[in-house]
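The following record pairs a protein chain with its ligand, aspartic acid.
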Amino acid sequence: MRIVMKFGGSSLASAIHIRRAADLIARQRAEGDDVVVVVSAQGDTTDDLIEKAREITEEPCGREKDMLLCCGEQMSMALMAMQLEAMGCPAVSLCGWQAGIRTESRHGDARILKVEPDRVIRALEEGRVAVVAGFQGIDGTGELTTLGRGGSDTTAVALAAALGADACRIYTDVSGVYSADPRVVERARVHREISYDEMLEMAALGAKVLHSRAVELAREHNVRVEVCSTFSPQSGGTALGSECGHGQPVRGITCDDRVDMVTVAGLGAGPETCGLFNRLADSGVSIDVIIRSPGEQPRGGVVSFSVSAGDRETVRAVLNGCREELGFSAFSVQTDMAKVSVVGVGMSDGCGVAAKMLRALQEGDLRPQYITTGELRISVILPKTCASRAVRLIHSAFFEE
Ligand code: ADP
Ligand code: ASP
Ligand code: MG
């Protein structure tokens, strides 16, 4: 068997953690398998590096920020390879570029374009464990790039696809994919299986247990992904597959607590609204919930939409830049908001899910200002301070009755 094992930051937080992960790797290899390991930066290293950059400048250039962030995963890969060697398990560490992770030219959030894993294959042929730094790649001009927060999952799945691996096991600090974040909902249930579609929706809506591009790639290349705990690997975990729903309309409650709501007043409904959204799209800003209230006057309408808090400054710059041309009167940004969503493939042909969700919120005295529905989800936007309570109320309505 050929297997990719990915270890997240909390699974590598200290030398003891690295040793424990190395034990799992050595045991897998002892079964005669080819083993490729993908590592994240230890503990909070990535956050610490971002903070270090901020101590120098509020706006580090993308290239230098990526050069800095790549160091986190490189520390982990070298330490893991040293640990494996010290245990008598032959290993070699490889940076993203050495492992052939080719990306688009975009700093901070690059997509993987292709993987050329020759060196990884060579290491396996030499009988070594290949330990690859997650979250990083190289673009066509030879510059280092990073894949976005949580991107080591994507490195692992991309390598598994390129190597035709039999499985890609994501080792993390919880026992799999749950019906809600188990750190927020004590009674959350672990799923034995979840469909790619449901997992993709959950990941995109804030369940950070898997990077959404990793799920996209797994679905595209039919990679067998398993999510399990580094600390109790024997307890099973969750397998991703094509089977959907298992008869349950709702499979997960998610929360994205980095959301801003932008409101633009006096924007014409025709080319002006179109022009605004085009400009935001051209600047790489993705928009989710959109609500338009027509207003009484020809230019009395109000458009509200949600964006990721990470895009706040770009959104402000775009709006300031096109205000005169598009002729709107004012805009405001409501920060510290959260998007709480109910996700499930069976939702499209079941009714009553929205009613149940809103009733649960109502009973907890929560009245969301914005609501949106999609084929696989219903989302509400609330102040961040209410988000965890909202998740617990909704979870209890759907899973604890
Ligand atoms: P790693 O460092 O291993 O990549 P992450 O912190 O990125 O781990 O992701 C694991 C975390 O995801 C868990 O600790 C948990 O708090 C959070 N999480 C959010 N939603 C879910 C969910 N539905 N199921 C499991 N974990 C979830
Ligand atoms: N170290 C990176 C992060 O913290 C990538 C990852 O852990 O997947 O986002
Ligand atoms: Mg992660």
